[in-house]
Write a structure and sequence with these properties.
Blueprint: E1 2-6, E2 16-20, H1 25-48, H2 56-82, H3 91-94, H4 106-117, H5 121-129, H6 134-161, H7 168-176, H8 178-207, H9 211-234, H10 239-262, H11 264-270, H12 274-290, H13 297-322, H14 347-355, H15 362-368, H16 382-405, H17 409-416, H18 419-422, H19 426-435, H20 446-455, H21 468-482, H22 489-524, H23 536-558, H24 564-593, H25 601-623, H26 631-643, E3 648-649, E4 652-653, H27 655-696, H28 721-737, H29 743-747
Antiparallel strand pairs: 1-2, 3-4
Amino acid sequence: MSVEYVKTDEAMPPVAVVEKPKWTPGRIILWSALALIGAIGWVMIAIVRGEELSASWIVAAAVGTYLIGFRFYAKFIEWKICRPDHRRATPAEIKDNGVDFQPTDRRVLFGHHFAAISGAGPLVGPVLAAQMGYLPGTLWIILGVVLAGAVQDYMTLYFSTRRGGRSLGQMARDELGAVGGIIASIGIILIMTILIAVLGIVIINALAESPWGVFSIACTIPIAILMGVYMRFIRPGAVMEVSIIGLVLLILSIVAGGWVHSSETWSAVFTLSKVELAWGLIIYGFIAAILPVWLLLAPRDYLSTFMKVGTIALFAVGILLVNPDVQMPAFTEFAFNDKGPAFAGSLFPFLFITIACGALSGFHALISSGTTPKLVEKESQIRMIGYGSMLIESFVAIMALVAAVSLDKGLYFAMNAAEPLTGGTPAGAADFINNHLGMSGVQTSEAELAEAAREIGEASIVSRTGGAPTLAMGMTHILSDVFGGKALMPFWYHFAVMFEALFILTTIDAGTRVARFMLSDLLGNFYKRFKDPSWTLGGWLTTIVMVAGWGSILLMGVTDPLGGINTLYPLFGISNQLLAAIALTVIAAIVVKSGHGKWVWIPVVPLAWDLLVTMWASALKIFSPNPTVGYWAQHRAYKNALANGETSLGPTQGEEAMRAVIRNTFVQGTLSIVFAAIVILVVVMAVYRSFQALSTKNFTTAEDPFVASKLFAPAGFIPTKAEREVMADWKAWNEKHGVGKDPAAAADGK
């Protein structure tokens, strides 16, 4: 292995270590074995199949593909396009203000980034898509992330870091011009309101009328604040120490949630309706977005990442030990028609907008150009954080899919059919599944559904839409077979609900903060003071506007007569994928304008596919004459019925409910048109700017000027021997010069 020590000041220790390991026979054998494991998994799930397929083969295919993708494809992108500069200071080092910009330990930052991007998408989408069978979702989740999702996350984070941590909207303005940038920024902000609102609906559906879940989630807020204060003032740098404290308190909060659930007095206090939870979430989102990032956001995300990664690893081990059979076929009838009870629409194109975050998510580009580039210590860490964390999210999506397809089919459809179809009762759900579902070989009974709810300590599991309860149920069945049996099923179910709620809450608070950054960037084009991150009033005003935006959609969703998740999730999926199209478009333009046009196919291939399926889905939602698919068709059907004096239509009863459907479908249909038009305009502007750069050979971008780094940090999770030696040199140098952890301050004589 060759080792190069990089210095920017001969009087100071190195700021980086560049190591180039050689390919030894042992390394070749190891990577060949990993590739073989993935290949065998693919053969079993896609070709052999058989009457009984073990879910373990899905896990094998995923893990093998992820490892090969990270080691080879991500490294290829790093070599050809990104090319991290080890001498270059990042925005966190240059603009360190202790609020939004601050060099953050790579392990804590990885946790923050992963927690922020891993919201409801990888949990909800695969569970809903399971109604089409196990194979379509498996293919898209695994292959999509390697070639599309992780590519977008990695390159967006890299380009934003090179541009002072600027938001996606501001990067669009810098690279596409004022008109294209403003159009993109407005579209991104509108899309953000939908994304955060739907994430909120998912968590509310999981926590409504569940005192155990509400109490446990509420406890994570003071735990995170304690961790932030501990790392900031009490024991700076004691990451492992505070991690153990946080993890122990987290487990205790789940156990205490069981006591609250059993107490008649406390259970009443923490049993909240959907509307009450919505207002609580709105208030929380505002407070979390204005507090310093070190106090709540970063430690909470780090804490939740421990639980997320640990739970997924535990679940993967449980799958390997229990080795459950996949209950869903490779394809179901709902892959080829629009009669699915979880959502309406056939495989092409609706599978790809339904799975969303597990394979490709535009929301991730907002985090990758929002909080994370303002915190990253060194450019050498970006591949691990950007590409690596997206692979883990994809694995979360695979685990969600496995949990769903391993459940009894009757139980799955009872939980995911909307309340208007089931009546919200075990008897109604059994009648719908046995007589109206339209899928052969699926049966259940009122007694079976009631018993399933009793086993997990819930009053009902019928029409618990949103995906989160289904994932919790699937995890409970597998984990209880390994740990504790039926006696621990209530614990495992609520543990899983808390695990999911942490995913979503961390996305809501980080998403709100990112939305504030984007709005500030946009308004800063007209009033420059909004660009000043230290302007408290501006931060509060932009936060209020964004919270009011997604909060109003959230309240609309939780009171929707047709079931908020069932009507809003398709719009969530479409807007999320269109946002990914904007991000990939901006990335492609930067690649061309940077003089790397021969490699522009790396972002353009996923961009072309994303545009194809998402515009197709948008067209169907706008123009389809089928009321179960098209927003405007549904809008007209309810409007005409009301005009004819009818006070009910299908499952909707009452004039007020019908008016709510008319209002909601108008909003959803209008937004569908606006989002599609914005993306088309952004793509046209990007193509124009790219051809302009190619024709004039003027390869310039809005990249910030070079500033030499005076900070050292390891590139990976575990420091190498050479990196540990440099860390020791820095420690001795700091002690000699009487400074703490900030070598830049010492160099400046502070």
